[in-house]
Amino acid sequence: MRHSLVIVGAGPRGTGLIERIAANAPELYGGPGLDIHLVDPHPPGAGRVWRAAQSPLLWMNSHAEDVTMFTDDTVDMAGPVREGPTLHEWAGIDGRTFADRQLQGGYLRWVHERAVAALPPSVTVHHHPCRALRVGGPRAGRQQVWLEDHPRPLPADLVVLALGHLDAEPDHEQRALTAYADEHGLVHLPPDFTADSDLSALRPGEPVLVRGFGLAFVDLMVLLTEGRGGRYEGDTYVPSGREPVLHVGSRRGVPYHAKIGYDWSGERPPLPRFLGSAETAELLARPQGFDFPRDVWPLVEKELGFAHYHRLFAAHPERTAIAWTDFEEKYAAAGDAAERETLVASAVPDPGDRLDLAALDRPLDGVRYGSSEEFQEGLRAYVEADLSRRHDSRHSPDLAVFLGLLSVYGQLVRLGDTGSWWHGFFSHLASGPPGPRLRQLLALSRAGVLNFVGADMAVRAEDGVFRASSPTVPGCTVEARALVEARLPGPTVRRARDPLLRALHQEGVAETPDGLLRVDRVDGRILDRNGEPHPRRFALGPHTDGRTPGAFTRPRTGGPAFRQNDATARAALVFLRDLGCSAVG
């Protein structure tokens, strides 16, 4: 009898899993034929986020040379390396290009087709362009995957959830704001995928409060300006007259740091140094568990500092006061942050060359402006300085910190859920917009199409309108009849709109305090509330506590998603192989 593997989600994560199945099958699977069923209403490879049917104005958030779906020898995995082209090599474009998402979708479709073609002849892939509704079946037996508009379920020896980013039901605050908007004839757009949002209710010339300053905001900015006929002439924005006026703020009150615009040269910092597999293993072995602020963050700080100063001493020794060997020895021996700060103060004369993670994370903390006009000028100066710094190789320790962040993330995914703060911090420093997008933001600000509200933006629904304020500009309030939550829905199981995840929640799977699906750290098997892994169900992606920065990654940076894909693929193949052996026996 042929075996059956059902993969729910045919986007880049599902494609990456198929690629790893193809790579590992010659070693691990010699059983009977295998049917792989891909269940996804969107096209295989591209999935929802990278599908062709979206605005060509929307870009990727990485240089084309920094995007790959293929493994290399930096990935810590048991399976074989199968190298392949980066996006820029495949597309034949300049590696420094920020490609549009439609082009990335084409790359992902090609990777999917290549992965399917690499499968053994006994393996057949079937795509079901619909949604999976629920999974049933005994732990020790075959599973059934029920599909919408299908009278009978798919039989499955194994099921892998690779669902990617999902819609979620609004939380209490969002429901209250929507109800208020309905009652008073206002517009409230809750967290959503901006490319899928209906923005038609945001009328030309009218003020719109925007809460969120990350990548969802950048998409919103593009669709409401160029997407409505505006254009840029150099550093000047020429409005079409169809734009609303955006008043944007967030917890930090500033946009994410710009993507770094220069290449690495010379020796890379030897990472990991203070937060590697030995340290994560020790944290996981603690009977009482670990606390992120107390036990993990000090290691993160030390690792990022090491990356920063290694580069500073190697590339800019004239800006240091002692030899690197002396600094490295003392830095390694320093017992806490205070000791490191004392060492750095004596070894790095210019405070501008010292790493200050708190200032990078919250640059407006304690900063006050006397008027909104002063703040507009002040924040434009901040963005201009950030753009200048991120495109100036004299500040190359910033790129070393970026590499340190990738190394740290690769270790932290081994720990499971480390809370939402870390993911926000990582995104702010390492996953910001392309430089040209921030230059557009500056042009929109100068044109009066976009205004800054400040940090710790508070929104009140009162007197039939929405009002926003920030301690950054005391006493200043912005009033509007429209509010947009410019951020993705939270990846929670309990509030997911996806019917399959809701059914799993009701069934009693293990969840983190943030509502993520708990999975086995080794191979991604779904855990029940007793901590027992389900032998036939796996999950990968942002709705799990093994979430990674993305389903694809920068070449030669270890690719934690690739490592997870390989482990899950190998576990699945071994299970199916042994299942075939027991059936024969």
UniProtKB/TrEMBL annotation:
Domain FAD-dependent urate hydroxylase HpyO/Asp monooxygenase CreE-like FAD/NAD(P)-binding: from-to ranges: 6-165
Domain of life: Bacteria
Residue ranges crossing the lipid bilayer per the database entry: none
Alphabetical list of Pfam families matching this protein: NAD_binding_9
InterPro entries: FAD/NAD-bd_sf, HpyO/CreE_NAD-binding, L-asp_N-monooxygenase_NS-form
Region (Disordered): 527-560
Protein name, per record: FAD/NAD(P)-binding protein
Naturally occurring in which organism (per UniProt): Streptomyces phaeoluteigriseus
